[in-house]
Amino acid sequence: MMRAYVGGSWIEGERQLEVINPFNGQLIDRVAECSAAEVEQAIATAHQALPQTRQLEPYQRARILAFIRDRLSEQQELFARTLAQENGKTIHEARLEITRAVATFDIAVGETTRIYGEAYDLAINPLATRRQALVRHYPIGVVAAIAPFNFPVNLAVHKIAPALATGCPVILKPASKTPLTALMLAQIIAESGWPLAAFSVLPCSRTVGQQLVEDERIKLLSFTGSPEVGWPMKRAAGKKKVILELGGNAGLIVDRDVRDWDWLIARAVMGAFYQCGQVCISVQRIFLHHEIMGEFRSRFKKAAEALRSGDPLDERTTLGPMIDSANCQRLQRWIQEAIDQGARLVTGHSVAPVGQGNSLAATILEEVDARCAVVAEEAFGPVVTLTPVQSMEEAFERVNDSRYGLQCGLFTNDFQTVMRAFDVLEVGGIIHNDVPSFRVDSMPYGGVKDSGLGREGVRYAMRDMLEERLLVYRSHCIPPIYMSH
To answer: Rounded to whole angstroms, what are the CA distances from 229 to 32, 155, 210, 247, 451?
Structure first.
């Protein structure tokens, strides 16, 4: 059994969480489930450690981050295999996630030494004569990080690395289904030189974890998950800063001037079915110029049907299972609802004969009513809808007809169309000639509307974890005429 990590100490805990392999339903391991008292202990020790983390010089924080980066890189295969088992993503996808996590720490190594202040003259009028300003940035305080199951390593690292880079103690609550890799990461951080009391990993229930949301000693809450959970968290968070990454039903727009069909189809299949579609920026809605609808459908269907379901640890598997049977059954209901309301099934909508039934085949639908859940909500599974449009303006309107706005992909060779999309699409990011699933870990990442609040990406998350402090000083004595009477 793996223990929880509370303020520098490994604890057994009175209760346990079982970690189940979503492919075959087998027990992988048990971890300690933290109680309210242990969450309080983590908050208290993190708060007490803040003076230590604040005093770390930039080069010291950079060395700590570099140590973590290097150790994670050395243990990449162990992390990847554990990740594939607890999460269900294929071993290839798991290796990619750990590679990205290493890169995220590497970005933080550089950014921690680039926290700059300002110095300038305030004399914009006679009252400010001989007055100078200094602006410096200081750690905001204790950061609470709540990570999801779909990227349990890299999305946790996107909260941890900026916190360490800015000198903030951090408490991580991993998803209950995927705590193993988070606890493995805790072991590395414990050896890195980061103050022991300034980091915790707390596997616990949502009810117990609510302390991290409400406690005033927490100064920033970073949450990745669903809107149904995230927005109530923001309301309960009080005066602390909140960063929310809440998912979406990402659109992909394809203009009629396609030149490289192989690239388009390969990227569309990856975007729709990578990690069994359990990605916040998974391709869910594809809007195609009507002139290329037939060609795209034919090629896309063939490529989707070539995906191979199976054991995530099998190097030949290209489509792993969904996280659990409840989500698999939910998505099957959504697909059937769309079919019952007139949608046409292009391919899929079957449970592959592997594992315990969590492996849903790659599914393509067309002629789907926009009010159906498989279009209007976040499917978070291997299903995509195809819709023909008469123009790019119609495609833009269709993408915007959503309560979500995370990212959008746009295939076109017309730069005016690209710039028009930049102006009118109500999303956090537009990816040209690629799918919305594209992400580099240094770029600002986040959404609008129900897709969230704030931005991740190391440098952008660091901005929220730092507070500006102003010093105004007089370079000489102020002339008597400007003094108060």
So the answer is: 24, 17, 11, 12, 12
Phi/psi-derived region of residue 348, left when phi > 0, alpha when psi is between -120 and 50, beta in every other case:
left
Domain with CATH 3.40.309.10 in the chain: 251-432
Q: Quick count: other Cβ atoms within 10 Å of Cβ 324?
A: 17
- Identify the CA nearest to 462 among candidates 107, 191, 181: 107
Full pLDDT tens readout for the chain, 485 residues: 889 999 999 999 889 999 999 999 999 999 999 999 999 999 999 999 999 999 999 999 999 999 999 999 999 999 999 999 999 999 999 999 999 999 999 999 999 999 999 999 999 999 999 999 999 999 999 999 999 999 999 999 999 999 999 999 999 999 999 999 999 999 999 999 999 999 999 999 999 999 999 999 999 999 999 999 999 999 999 999 999 999 999 999 999 999 999 999 999 999 999 999 999 999 999 999 999 999 999 999 999 999 999 999 999 999 999 999 999 999 999 999 999 999 999 999 876 555 556 889 999 999 999 999 999 999 999 999 999 999 999 999 999 999 999 999 999 999 999 999 999 999 999 999 999 999 999 999 999 999 999 999 999 999 999 999 999 999 765 555 444 44
Task: Pick the catalytic residue from 245, 366, 378, 456.
Answer: 245
Dump the DSSP string for 157-209.
Answer: HHHHHHHHHHT--EEEE--TT--HHHHHHHHHHHTTTS-GGGEEE----HHHH
214 is a catalytic site residue: no
Q: Which CATH superfamily is domain 251-432 in?
A: Aldehyde Dehydrogenase; Chain A, domain 2 (3.40.309.10)
Q: Is 280 a catalytic residue?
A: yes
Q: How far apart are the first and last CA of the chain?
A: 72
- The verdict on domain 4-246+451-470 having CATH code 3.40.605.10 is yes
Measure the CA–CA gap between 406 and 427, rounded to whole angstroms: 5
Tokens representing 54 are 């604040």
Annotated catalytic residue, options 34, 280, 328, 408: 280
* Cα angle: 84, vertex 430, 233; to 5 degrees: 60
CATH 3.40.605.10 residue ranges of the chain are 4-246+451-470
